[in-house]
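Q: Predict the bound structure with heme C.
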Amino acid sequence: MADAAGLPGTLLFLAAALALLSVALSPSAAAAQANQAEIARGKYVFGATGGCGCHTEPGKGRPVNAGGRKIDAPFGTVYATNITPDRETGIGGWTDEQIIGATRLGRRPNGERILPVHPFGSFNGMAEGDLKALVAFLRTLPPVKKPNQPKKITVPLFESVFLPAWLAAFAVSEKPPAAAPTSGVARGEYLVKAVGHCGECHTPRTRFQALDNGRFLAGNPTGPENSEVPNITPDKETGLTWSVDEIAYYLASGNKPDGDVVGGIMGEVIYGNVAGYKDMTKADLTAIAQYLKSIPPVRYKIGK
Ligand code: HEC
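A: Predicted complex:
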């Protein structure tokens, strides 16, 4: 009898205890949820950069963001750095502010300058919220212990002549924009210039290897990894004549209107590691295409 009477009492007690527990847990549950949303947003931003592909060695099964990718530049050879959360060889020991500073200002926590091979001149325009989300996402990727390889500078006057010219050409703004445009051509411009850093490959360079932004997106006959990078300004003869939908579909799939498929480094940024351009929303890809249609056409023939 005592047991039968005690059961509902026990259940009531349990229910009350559970209710109390869930009240006690809910603030941290909400925080965890907010953090999940932040990480998801960061993954989206990561994709919109093309998946930070330079930081992953090409080839199947290479650890994401562990660096080591060899990049030949006119002044020598650099190796992309380890940006996994490993504390010793990666960026796991850096604060959010330090990671954001390296990303958009090109400065390491120890004050060292990062060469503009890392596109901080473009990422400088990324909005604060996007950068914070990106860092939250980077911290969720597996840490990989892999020491960075030192750069090999072969041009004698590099540090005294070229680097100052570069840094002047890539003059950065200290404070990031507070918010990113959310729609339309302004959104497309933001994604092209700041996040997708399309100009780093698609804009020709001066003899100091700085971006020749007077010919923004007019193509580069000698782009990264010896790629011929096409002119994507709307010039009728030498530029991109695809429709808005065709451009958006290409960025989503790699498929060109003529049935051909993207190759090389453009394929890398479309497909990405973990995420790439293909993972952007249709609205964002359309905004990019609309922006490309709106920029001044530049006559500049790339290739035969
Ligand atoms: C890492 C260098 C790199 C980046 C970054 C890059 N591209 Fe490209 N892009 C290329 C190369 C190389 C090709 C040629 C690909 C091929 O031959 O299949 C190309 C091709 C294209 C084409 C096809 C043009 C044609 O006539 O075939 C379009 C459109 C394009 N890119 C748009 C963009 C946009 C928009 C962005 C930024 C959101 C971007 N690209 C970022 C290197 C890059």
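A: The longest strand covers residues 70-73.
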